[in-house]
Amino acid sequence: MEKDSEKIRKLEIRKMRREEAGFAIEMAAAEGWNPGIHDGELFYEADHNGFFIAEVEGKPVGCASAVAYDDSFGFFGLYVVNPEFRKKGIGMKLTEKCLEYLEDRNIGLDGVVENEKKYQQVMKFRSSYSNLRFEGRGGGEVPDGLMKTSEVPFKKLLAYDMEMFPAPRSGFLEKWVNQPDSYAFAALEEGDLKGYGVIRKCRAGYKIGPLFADDRDTAEKIFRALRASVPGETVYLDVPEPNKKAMEIAKRYNMNVMFKTIRMYSQKEPDIELDKVYGVTSFELG
Fold first, then answer.
1. Residue-wise pLDDT tens digits, 191-240
2. pTM (2 decimals)?
3. Which of 25, 89, 158, 194 is buried most deeply by CB count within 10 Å?
4. What are phi and psi of 54, to 5 degrees?
5. What CATH number has the domain bearing residue 67?
């Protein structure tokens, strides 16, 4: 016990440097979260000041992210402590640092089910709904009538994205839709954007996210294009459970639920068009 106390006295929580982002991704991979192969650099782009690392005697033992998207909204994620250093107060110190950084913003998170009560009681977060991770297989044909998101004016893409996300995320989004080892499609009708989606290579298989669309037919068309881009590969889709049309698409293509997270907020649930969210961008950044 004395040894543990001594180690905790030598705990330092500090801002993560860009070259250390890979540590957070390795921690996430060790937890079985199956990060994208470029997630470290892309996540860090969302907020260079919002990633924190916990060190004991100079050794990194934990991490967390607190991305401040604007003055009113932030997202808490990538919260991991090395198993041998758990239950020593390190996680709480990381949490305190993140909450201090995000100040009075409304904060979102996707928590694992077993931590829901802790987030409610300790952090005073409120549960909003569940997100379900579905697993399926890639294949099929790319439907006609879609275009690559790189061919869509970025201002148009960003404006559309803000209907389904609580804050502008221009720096992150521009790199996310153009990342290596990915495919991204958009649907336009008479010049108006009706939906878009991205699928990226992960440690295992590919994850779809986001998948935003005005209606089920458009969402399914983009979904088909994304899964057809990675034939024979395992494909994952994270669906907000309240969006029944999204649930129907996942089931129609014989996808199976792997696990779920609880979407929680520190204040009220943001006023976004959740019925157009057919796939969450990521559990780590919202």
1. 999 999 999 999 999 999 999 999 999 999 999 999 999 999 999 999 99
2. 0.94
3. 25
4. -105, 130
5. 3.40.630.30
**Cα-flanking dihedrals φ and ψ of residue 144, to 5°?**
-75, 160
pLDDT (0 to 100) of residue 261: 96
54 beta partners: 13, 62
Segment 48-75 shows an average pLDDT of 96
- Domain boundary residue, one of 91, 108, 126: 126
Length of the chain in terms of residues written: 286
Q: Classify residue 32 by burial, with Cβ atoms within 10 Å: 0-12, 13-18, 19+.
A: exposed
Does 284 fall in a domain?
no
Structural domain harbouring 272: 133-279
143 contacts 110 by C-beta, under 8 angstroms: no
Task: Look at residues 268, 254, 285 and name the one whose alpha carbon lies nearest to residue 44.
Answer: 285
pLDDT of residue 5: 41
Q: Are residues 95 and 52 in the same domain?
A: yes
Q: How far apart are the first and last CA of the chain?
A: 38
Biggest CA–CA distance in the chain, Å, is: 69
For residues 53 and 79, give the distance between their C-alpha atoms in angstroms, rounded to a whole number. 10
Residue 286 falls inside a structural domain: no
Q: Is residue 106 part of a domain?
A: yes
Query: Tell me, what's the pLDDT at 85?
Result: 92
